[in-house]
Design goal:
The protein is mainly α. It has 4 helices and no strands. It has helices at about 1-20, 30-40, 45-55, 55-65. The chain starts with a helix and ends with a helix.
């Protein structure tokens, strides 16, 4: 299961870098607070924005492992 998640994240990160040339810009503190509040209320779009905008951190963690 963990290997499948790892593979899926790797593929997502690789395709994102190829299509845009870089990662999305990180959220500001204010934006992050707003999207976190919306995501806690069940807003799936806010949840997805939080995930997409934190891909740089995910890639950093994956590269260290």
């Amino acid at each position: 299961m963990l290997a499948a998640v790892w593979l899926m994240l790797s593929a997502l990160l690789y395709s994102l870098q190829l299509s845009t040339g870089s990662f999305p810009k990180p959220l500001t503190e204010e934006e992050e607070r707003r999207y976190l509040a919306l995501a806690q209320q069940g807003d799936l779009e806010a949840r997805n924005i939080l995930i997409e905008r934190n891909l740089r951190l995910v890639a950093h963690i994956m590269n260290k492992g």
